[in-house]
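Record type: ASSEMBLY
Status: queued
Input:
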Amino acid sequence: MDLLRLLQTIDRRFIYALLLLAVSAPFFLSIRIPVPISPQTQALYNAIEALPPNSFVLLGADWSAGSRGENRPQTEALMRHLMKRKLRFALLCFDPQAATLTETMAKRLQSEYGVQEGVNWVNWGYKVDLENFLKALVLNVPQTVSADINGTPVANLPVMQGIQTARDIRMILDVTPSETFKAYIQFVQGTYKIPMGLAPTSVMAPEAFNYLDSGQLIGMINGLQGAIEYEQKVGYVGQATRAGLSSSFAHLLIISLILLGNLAMLLQRRQRARLLEGRR
Amino acid sequence: MFQPVQGYRWYGYIAGALLVSLVVVLILQQTPPRFRKPLIRAITLLGGLFYALEFFLPTHPMPTPEDPQRVGNFLTPYVVPFGNTSVIIAAWTVGLGFINLVQVHSRRLLRGAEGAFNSAVLLISMAVMIVVHILQKVHPNAINKNLHHLLFDGALQSLDATMFSIIAFYIVSAAYRAFRVRSVEATFLLVTAVLVMLGQIMVAQAVTMHLPHNLHVEVIRDWILTKANAPATRAIAFGLGIGGLAVALRIWLGLERGSYFEAQE
Amino acid sequence: MTWFSPWLSAHLPTLLVWIGAICTLGLYSVLYRENRLYRLFEHIFLGLATGYLVAQTWTDVLLPKWWVPMWDKGQWVYIFALVAGLFYYFIYSRRHNWLARLMIGFFLGVASGRTFQAFVNDTWPQIPTSFKPVVPHPALRDATGKVVAKAVTWPDAINNILFLVILLCVMSYFFFSFEQKNAVLRRSAQWGRWLLMFAFGAIFGQTIMARLALLIDRVDYLLNDFGPAIGGPVVMFAVLMVLAALVLFLALRPGAREREPGEEP
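Status: finished
Output:
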């Protein structure tokens, strides 16, 4: 097999090994490169900063461990920001795993910021039937949610004081690997004009830029890159920042492989064309 | 009539409600086949009417103690009870998937077919998870909580996260193999993808930091996403939105054809 | 069993990371090739995930929203929600299958009725925001001096024109309602297809990031969470590299190389 063909048909397991090396080796480098903040991340950060103290924020978390590489650091960054600003928030999950994942996270972070479950934040737990649930939620929050993840009726919780309808919610945030954010736009944000921010996985983000342009979303944490930026804004080194270098090296590997494959293909084409010309 | 009741009356009401339901089911069973399709269409229309009328009918102030600013029409007070009931009904559908999975794997297990061992493992892990999860909610003692911790944080989280991360290997290999500049479209696609990827590399951002602002890789990426990608996705969204509306209308009005609406039995 | 609970509490952190690592590496074994170990862990994953979904639906939805109001608070009327939910289960009966379609039809209707509000709140606001200023102008103020329209610079105007061109071209590409005989429409549809590639390229670039993030998370887990259990992240890194070398050795040894599609045996 000639070299040009070989460069186009490298064994997949060799590529896997290279990728594993590119992802794992950077964990041993202690370089920290500050990242430029994108306008969408900055806009979301500013919007949360501008909320009056004690405002009530609905933090939707609709992810499972399958997308925790991006959604976990996004959720943590937002949660830290809300806790740091002493804003009240409710976790609402339309994925069964998200309820437990976010509960563990919030409990881990609360002592660091001096906030308390039931007083500063509440986990409404896992819910089903997204659209019908939201249609009812906007009209009567305590009746629709009924109890939190611990089984306590939400109407009795100090964090829920004064929260009756969607009009009492100051901001909606949704951390999601799917299209759940559209249901929030269709049945909550659109009707009540509540500012909404989004933290989608990178694969879902391109679609969301349309909603940013139309003003239906006020800001966004775009995947892992957005999470790195948000961690920098909130001021801590988290999972996303730790992953930054690995991501860079892996991206460089992919770009190199794509360029290598194309270069080899073009050179091979030229070689073939010359051979054909020679025969003629 | 629908007020809460306690004690023996509760059992009486439950028994009465079940009896009424049974009678309704028995009557429905007797429906001649030719009336079944129109009945399904009528029920579909009725289901759609609720939210459609609630949305289209004129609204007026309807203050309540909880929401003094509320506006609505005569259907608005039923949205919350309807939503609550619909959530419960939707929750019961989880059982459909559960039963199906149990059926498929118990059949394989009983036949001793290939993969019977894996089916047994699946059924056992499912049963263990259900028992442990409910136990740690009902009796949240140390052992139940720790077992749940092991199953959820130790096994399920790792398995779920790993299963999806495998795609990373495949996508890299596939990109290397299939991403070739063979046409104008492929060239546009490749150039855009590479520019977007460069824009999310810290090292590339640091390298281009000293160039004029518009040549920073992250600025180019942002421009592609906001100025080139957003209008294209909006055009798709317009098509999807209008298409979705048309399909919804066809379903609601019973105009949709196919096995679901056409089947008599 | 008295010994088990303290033992479990004492060894929980170690057990957690070992279970996590074994599950992760078990699934990654598929990267060498399809094998029994991978199948086993795949079935454990399916079992645990389904079990978790069923249990969580009970504890977080049905228990607080159905069982507690009905059983504890005497709201007997909630029994009808169970009956309605059970209608779905007629799907398992060949004779009474059509009864399940009643409930499915009802909720299809509900979803259709909801679509009007969804369209108005989702797609509608994007129409006026697509009309972007294409002529540069300074900020426009009302009589009180309040800015009513932001200033539009030359670069803004060019970007806005580009936005409109992409939007219209891509929309014209999706005109399938009639044959595109008009030369202008054909040309704009052709451009629409090319311009759509910007969006697809951007989506591809972003997808790479999404998949890599999942892999990085697992590697982070293996190195920094599990690593300390076997002597530190460096030891785990060495283990990973040895495993990768072993896979490469097995895969690339003479006679084991996978044939490329179309390659002669």
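Annotation: Chain C touches chain B through 123 residues (CB under 8 Å).
Annotation: Strands of chain C lie at 140-141, 147-149.
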